[in-house]
Amino acid sequence: MLRYPRSRCCEDACGGAEAAALAAPLEPGRGVLVRRGTEGQAGAKAARGLAVGGAGRAGAGGRALLISVGGMLGECLEAADRLARRGVGCDVYNLRFIRPLDQEHLAGVIGGYRAACVVEEGVASGGIGEHIAALAARRGVRTPVAAAGVPDRFIQHGKRRQLMEMCGLGAAGIAGRLEAAMQQAAGAGAAQGTPEAPRPAADELPRHHLYRPS
After folding, report:
1. What's the structural domain count of the chain?
2. How confident is the model at residue 61 (pLDDT cuts 50, 70, 90)?
């Protein structure tokens, strides 16, 4: 079966470097780093050997990662811009494939960041975001992974941008979810060495499905 890379449809929302990344040859099961943040060294580990669009852009990456699925690349790039204005360096990775998925490669990418968020326009419950969070946990990746997607309820009719905003999948909502994951990661780091740290009840967990290996 021939598969057309649907992410090419997002090129109008991208700059030159991002468009070049989307034009990079497909590697089965692997995505592509579309944008690299501008702060810190945390992303350097994840970005090692993973140049932006094959262009060989130098520099360390950001400390957080947005993983775009399907048609969510434009919103992820906007969210990264918002975070940059707040002083948070954020890399953007376009997943490209749901299946096959190079799990070892993806776990290695995620493991180089303080926090990650998978953004999809499908239902979050049982979606690719939860799958990626689970596989990262199974492989011992301690980076918290948030799964942002459509809530499992009836969604009324409307324009796409309106519906994305309604579901928390606009740029502001995505940025907020990634910041929440970073805050929880920072809290977990501060709590290390405290064996009696209480765990939140199930009904107190954030609605964006945050996963972290125990």
Report:
1. 1
2. very low
